């Protein structure tokens, strides 16, 4: 029993450098759709990530991803679109974060309580649905099955998020840096917090469909965390964050094709490697 397993793993790893097979797969429509979808997700992660880091919302992203999993599992059980269920779950988590969590400590405790309950419901829904493989895909991602419909959903979500984020960016930045002064100046701090949380929820919901609920932070958090190690300029940080997210997402997808590895594994590996390099470079530049 052990020998066949070892042989299969060796064959898969051997295909890691099979560039001809990778090129063949990249010529196929479903792979090209997956590349476009994950590139759009990387754009969202790169744009939103610096603000997420600045507002200390990393745990909120995790909560939105987990409840997106719950919503998707409920949609499977109900026989409706998984994407719709995921978006509803993520937006609900984001709304809870924005409405109930005024301070980081309070927000984290609220998200933790809601996330634990929601994750339990998700497991229940999948148990009733009866297909374990589908549940694993929601947790670890299944980018190769995005398809035309999924690509359209990601594209529409990206367009909405980018437009709304561009509108609220300046007042949101002001509210993030000094909420008291911003509120005194008439900036709707609470409303901006809720709107931004919903944008994060929408991005997280699409991330769950592509790289999974457990690993969505590799595109929404890690690239931005790496970028802030290299610069304090907000514009530079956003540009670097988008570049890092794009390299991680597209590079991870391409490298995972030939060996048939889960794309989320390669995305997180590249993203974390970039973070480590930026952390070392940042420490040396400060010394």
Q: Would you write up a description of this structure?
A:
The chain has 287 residues and is mainly α. The chain has a domain at 27-213: ABC transporter involved in vitamin B12 uptake, BtuC. It contains 14 helices and no strands. The protein has helices at 2-14, 19-26, 29-54, 58-78, 82-100, 104-129, 132-140, 147-177, 179-184, 189-211, 217-220, 222-227, 234-257, 263-286. Helix 3 runs antiparallel to helix 13. The longest helix has 31 residues, at 147-177. The model is unreliable at 1-11 (pLDDT under 50).
Mean pLDDT: 82
Can you tell me the CATH superfamily of the domain at 27-213? ABC transporter involved in vitamin B12 uptake, BtuC
CATH topology of the domain at 27-213, by name, is ABC transporter involved in vitamin B12 uptake, BtuC
Number of strands: 0
Largest sheet: none
Helix-strand makeup class: mainly alpha
Structural Rg: 19 Å
The CATH class assignment of the domain at 27-213 is Mainly Alpha
- Identify the CATH architecture of the domain at 27-213: Orthogonal Bundle
The 3D shape can be described as globular
- Please give the share of residues in helix: over 70%
Report the order of strands and helices. Answer: HHHHHHHHHHHHHH
Quick overview of this protein structure:
The chain is mostly helical and 287 residues long. It contains 14 helices and no strands. Helix 5 packs antiparallel against helix 10 and helix 7 (132-140) crosses helix 10 (189-211).
């Amino acid at each position: 029993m052990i020998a066949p397993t070892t042989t299969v793993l060796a064959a898969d790893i051997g295909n890691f450098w099979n560039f001809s097979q990778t090129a063949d797969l990249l010529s196929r429509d479903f792979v090209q759709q997956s590349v476009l979808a994950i590139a759009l997700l990387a754009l969202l992660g790169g744009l939103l990530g610096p603000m997420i880091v600045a507002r200390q919302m990393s745990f909120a992203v995790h909560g939105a991803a987990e409840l997106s999993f719950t919503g998707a599992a409920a949609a499977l059980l109900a026989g409706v679109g998984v994407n719709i269920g995921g978006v509803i779950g993520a937006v609900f988590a984001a709304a809870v974060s924005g409405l109930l969590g005024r301070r980081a400590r309070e927000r984290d405790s609220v998200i933790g309580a809601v996330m634990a309950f929601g994750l339990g419901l998700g497991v229940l829904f999948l148990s009733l649905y009866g297909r374990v493989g589908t549940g694993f895909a929601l947790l670890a991602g299944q980018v190769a099955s995005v398809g035309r419909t999924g690509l359209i959903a990601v594209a529409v979500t990206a367009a909405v998020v980018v437009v709304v984020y561009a509108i609220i960016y300046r007042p949101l930045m002001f509210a993030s840096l000094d909420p008291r002064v911003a509120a005194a100046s008439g900036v709707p701090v609470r409303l901006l917090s809720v709107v931004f949380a919903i944008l994060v929820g929408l991005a997280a919901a699409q991330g769950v469909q592509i790289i999974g609920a457990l690993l969505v932070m590799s595109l929404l958090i890690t690239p931005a965390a790496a970028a802030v190690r290299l610069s304090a300029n907000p514009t530079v940080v956003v540009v670097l964050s988008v570049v890092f997210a794009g390299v991680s997402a597209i590079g991870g997808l391409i490298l995972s094709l030939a060996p048939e590895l889960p794309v989320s594994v390669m995305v997180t590996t590249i993203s974390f490697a970039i973070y480590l390099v930026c952390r070392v470079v940042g420490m040396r530049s400060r010394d």
